[in-house]
């Protein structure tokens, strides 16, 4: 069995080799025939399969198919590749598109002709011709002058065989010559618009054959610009309808270009747009109240340009009197939108009383806007209805009205509204001293409670037993005037000389002061000898009940540089250092040389001025500083010692000048008690005397070493002119 299988296997192997050899021979023959039997003039392979019949094969004349002549090939033709527009536009107008370049190529070597004015390759005019190489781009320029006139023309590009005998391919191109520029029409004509806003659409019309290409516009008054190819060189390319600004005059300028590059001239329409009524805004009026000799300036503006006039009276812009017809005239003219206009209205053009002055402006669109103000002409001087003191007694111009030393203010009531920007202040004169010296009063102030009530505040306690008057000079500025500017007239309280003179008098300060211990530690007999014991004597040293409250110098909270000496028993606070002295190193030292000695008229304002220190908060934070009364000054005195009383205790006032028998002013005037000023209904004591028309040349003072003393004349700062040291006068200041 095994041997039989081997024989079969050998036989099969031989058969396979035989068939493989036959197949290999066939492949070799096939490849040879494929590479050798190639078509004439052709590249690549041509596979020829042996036909079973010769039917259907054409042979050249004389060729019987035996292979004695070559196999024929079909004729070949070239093709055009045209890459430019099939329609183009040109113009013979300067600046337009004067020519067009066409580009093309052929896929075989050949010959071409470019003909104009024909739709075939045999007619028209030959513009260009020549041989063309395969796959080479050719460019031909067609000028507007190549076309006989405006209109549409066919340009023919023809591709021929190299010997020009055979037409291979052709392309037809339409050439449009257009020498006329387009025109632009604006949908809304120029003019004035007062009821609705224009909505401007542009329409381009081309009378030539090319058609419109683009439009551009500007509305700022300058010309728009377009190039021949439609590029916007100035302005905005038009795409849709547009509007213009309201309340303005706008020049809209438009231009267009057609496809042949003809640019139109600039068309301009002017639009005066004033839609809606103007709004008149009055910014300011310099005087709402004025006299006939005055004038007022009205500053105003309109949000729309227009012509305006002023009218006086009436209820609208069709009534009243035109300002131009008044005497003096109120002129009107042209107002630009949102520009301030100042118009002067003469008071003489108004009637007495209230006048309605109306600004009327008419826009280009015939719309009217207005605004008005009421101006009051007043030529009558105001009058004073009353002057009261602290809301109580009336002031008097002929006799002295008794007022308290604590009087706070005067109220002036007028019979009409006044100019509250004016705040006249009176001057304070001492009428009990010859010459009526001025008493400077730096704290006096004036405020308007309302338009008809003016308050003068003294802001300081008045002196005791003081005969004085307040004087307002209405011939000097500032003065009382009404809103129109009329000065308060002669009448109640006002003299023919234009003065308001108010007379007053004061008595003693009703406020009491606590009695303090005298600080005596010894008792004495009638001869001044010191007693061994004070028991039963009833003298001050025998009485230890009364307290003594004068402290050492200190600074109050918040005012470290303002040194004061408090008295905890009386409740008074004293300025530690006097005029010309400052606190330094625990004592008062001289800061000004020579020391500024003072008259009574210097002392009063010196202490009052302390109330204005620290930006109005007052020295050491107190606002009641003043020259002390005699009883306040005497409360400081110590009665201990055999060499005199110590009027200014050194412990409370270290460094205080006391070397030359200095005196210190009080605000207690010395008065003469005569039959004319003693009230006999009272027991007749000096303390009950009534100061009426008596004189008060001097004022009480205290000595540094003694008690109370008297200065013969308040205008002096030294007494006893024949005394070597002159008894110089200074001032101490006290506050509650």
TrEMBL record:
Superkingdom of origin organism: Bacteria
Domain Lcl C-terminal: 566-676
InterPro entries, A to Z: Fn3_assoc_repeat (IPR026876), Lcl_C (IPR011460)
Pfam family, one: Fn3_assoc
Name of the featured protein: Lcl C-terminal domain-containing protein
Naturally occurring in which organism (per UniProt): Leptospira ellisii
């Amino acid at each position: 069995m095994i041997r039989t299988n081997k024989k079969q296997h050998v036989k099969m192997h031989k058969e396979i080799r035989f068939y493989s050899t036959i197949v290999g021979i066939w492949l070799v023959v096939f490849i040879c025939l494929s590479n050798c039997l190639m078509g004439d003039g052709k590249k690549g392979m041509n596979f020829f399969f042996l036909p079973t019949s010769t039917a259907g094969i054409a042979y050249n004349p004389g060729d019987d198919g035996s292979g004695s002549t070559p196999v024929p090939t079909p004729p070949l033709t070239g093709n055009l590749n045209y890459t430019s527009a099939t329609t183009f536009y040109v113009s013979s107008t300067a600046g337009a598109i004067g020519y067009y370049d066409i580009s093309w190529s052929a896929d075989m070597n050949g010959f071409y002709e470019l003909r104009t004015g024909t739709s075939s390759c045999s007619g028209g005019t030959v513009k260009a011709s020549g041989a063309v190489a395969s796959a080479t781009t050719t460019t031909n320029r067609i000028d507007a002058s190549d076309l006989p006139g405006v209109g549409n023309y066919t340009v023919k590009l023809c591709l021929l065989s190299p010997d020009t005998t055979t037409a291979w391919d052709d392309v037809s191109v339409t050439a449009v010559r257009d020498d006329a520029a387009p025109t632009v029409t604006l949908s809304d004509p120029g003019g004035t618009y007062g009821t609705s806003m224009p909505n401007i659409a542009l329409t381009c019309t081309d009378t030539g054959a090319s058609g419109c290409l683009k439009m551009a516009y500007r509305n700022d008054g300058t010309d728009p610009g377009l190039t021949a190819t439609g590029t916007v060189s100035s302005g905005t390319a038009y795409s849709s309808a547009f509007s213009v600004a309201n309340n303005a005059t706008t020049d809209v300028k438009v231009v267009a270009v057609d496809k042949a590059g003809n640019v139109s001239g600039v068309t301009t329409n002017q639009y005066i747009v004033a839609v809606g009524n103007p709004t008149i805004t009055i910014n300011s009026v310099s005087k709402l109240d004025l006299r006939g000799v005055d004038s007022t300036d009205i500053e105003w503006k309109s949000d729309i340009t227009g012509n305006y006039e002023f009218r006086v009276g009436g209820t609208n812009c069709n009534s009243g009197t035109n300002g131009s017809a008044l005497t003096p005239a109120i002129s009107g003219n042209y107002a630009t939108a949102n520009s301030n206009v100042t118009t002067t209205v003469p008071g003489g053009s108004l009637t007495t009383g209230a006048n309605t002055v109306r600004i009327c402006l008419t826009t280009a669109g015939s719309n009217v806007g207005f605004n008005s103000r009421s101006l009051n002409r007043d030529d009558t001087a105001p009058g004073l209805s009353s002057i009261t003191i602290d809301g109580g007694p009336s002031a008097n111009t002929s006799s002295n009205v008794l007022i308290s030393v604590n009087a706070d203010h005067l109220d002036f009531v007028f019979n009409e509204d006044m100019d509250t920007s004016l705040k006249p202040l009176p001057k304070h004169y001492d009428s009990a001293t010859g010459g009526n010296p001025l008493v400077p009063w730096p704290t006096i102030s004036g405020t308007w409670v309302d338009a008809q009530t003016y308050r003068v505040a003294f802001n300081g306690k008045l002196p005791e037993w003081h005969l004085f008057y307040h004087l307002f000079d209405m011939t000097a500025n500032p003065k009382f005037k009404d809103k129109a500017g009329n000065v308060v007239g002669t009448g109640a309280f006002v003299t023919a000389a234009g003065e308001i003179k108010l007379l007053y008098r004061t008595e003693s300060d009703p406020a009491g002061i606590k009695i303090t211990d005298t600080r005596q530690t010894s008792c004495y007999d009638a001869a001044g000898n010191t007693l061994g014991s004070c028991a039963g004597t009833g003298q001050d040293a025998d009485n230890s009940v009364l307290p003594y409250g004068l402290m050492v110098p200190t600074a109050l909270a918040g005012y470290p540089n303002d040194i004061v000496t408090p008295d905890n028993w009386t409740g008074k606070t004293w300025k530690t250092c006097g005029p010309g002295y400052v606190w330094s190193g625990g004592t008062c030292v001289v800061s000004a040389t020579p020391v500024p000695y003072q008259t009574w008229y210097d002392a009063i304002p010196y202490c009052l001025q302390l109330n204005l220190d620290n930006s109005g908060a007052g020295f050491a934070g107190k606002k009641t500083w003043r020259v002390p009364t005699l009883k306040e000054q005497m409360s400081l005195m110590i009665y201990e010692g055999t060499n005199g009383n110590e009027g200014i205790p050194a412990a409370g006032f270290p460094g205080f000048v006391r070397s030359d028998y200095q005196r210190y002013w009080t605000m207690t005037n010395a008065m003469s008690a005569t039959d004319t000023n003693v009230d006999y209904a009272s027991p007749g004591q000096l303390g009950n005397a009534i100061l009426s028309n008596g004189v008060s040349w001097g004022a009480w003072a205290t000595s540094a070493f003694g008690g109370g003393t008297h200065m013969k004349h308040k205008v002096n700062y030294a007494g006893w002119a024949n005394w070597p040291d002159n008894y110089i006068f200074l001032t101490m200041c006290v506050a509650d």
